[in-house]
Amino acid sequence: MQNNPKSIIAIVPAAGIGSRMGADKPKQYLMLGQQSILAHTLDVLLSHTDISQVIVALHPQDQHFKQLPQATHPKLSLVIGGGERADSVLAALDYALAINPQAWVLVHDAARPCLRHEDINKLIGSVEQHPQGAILAAPVRDTMKRSDASGQITSTVDRALLWHALTPQFFPITSLHRNLSQALAAKVSITDEASAMEWAGVRPGLVNGRVDNIKVTHPDDLQLAALFISQAQQ
C-alpha cells in the first residue's frame, strides 16, 4: 500500500439526472450565486495544488456541462458515468487507473459546493494515521431516534461514536478500484466509497470535517450554501 500520496486525482460523480428539485435541469446545474453548484465544486478541487487531475463522470445525454467555464480547464477530464453513483465512480476509477496506478483518489459529491481546502488538507494529511484511507465526517450532535414503519418512535439511539459521512472520501486507487468493482459484481448495495471498503474488510479512518460542507438536496439548501460560500470568500 502506498502511504505517501504523491499523486492525487479527484473524482466527481455527476451523472445523476433524477434530482431536479422542481427545476428543468439536474440539481448540480442550478445556480448558486453567479455560477452553478457544480462549478463551485469544481473550482475548489481544480484550485487545490495537490490535486493533479479532476475527473468528472457525466450522464451520456448531459448537455449542460460544456457550458461551464471549468469545462476547458487543463486539469479536467470527462468520462461517461453509469446508472448509479458507484457505477460512475468505477468508470472514473478505470480512467484514473490507466493514468497512474500509484495515485490516491479523492471522491467528492458534485452537490457539495462548500468544501474548503483546509478540509482537503486534513484528509490528505491523515494518510500516516490511516494508510488504508479515510473520509471526512462530522460527529452526530442531535438526539437520534429509531422509528417503526408507521413513523412512531421505538427507541432513542446512543449518538456516541456516530458520525455523518461526508465527502471527499480518500483511498489508494488500486484498493478502491478492486473493492468497489468486486462489491458491484456481488450486487452489494454501495452507498459511498467507504461502504465498498468496509464490505472488503477495510476499516477507513474518520477525519473530522467542517459541518458547513453540506450536500444540496432540497431547495432550501441553496440559500444556506450561498451563505457558506460568501463567508468563505470574505
TrEMBL record:
The record marks 20, 27 as: Transition state stabilizer. Its EC number is 2.7.7.60. The record marks 159, 215 as: Positions MEP for the nucleophilic attack. Catalyzes the formation of 4-diphosphocytidyl-2-C-methyl-D-erythritol from CTP and 2-C-methyl-D-erythritol 4-phosphate (MEP). Pathway: Isoprenoid biosynthesis; isopentenyl diphosphate biosynthesis via DXP pathway; isopentenyl diphosphate from 1-deoxy-D-xylulose 5-phosphate: step 2/6. The keyword Nucleotidyltransferase applies. It catalyses: 2-C-methyl-D-erythritol 4-phosphate + CTP + H(+) = 4-CDP-2-C-methyl-D-erythritol + diphosphate. It is an enzyme of class 2 (transferase). It comes from the Bacteria. It comes from Shewanella inventionis. The gene is ispD. This is 2-C-methyl-D-erythritol 4-phosphate cytidylyltransferase.
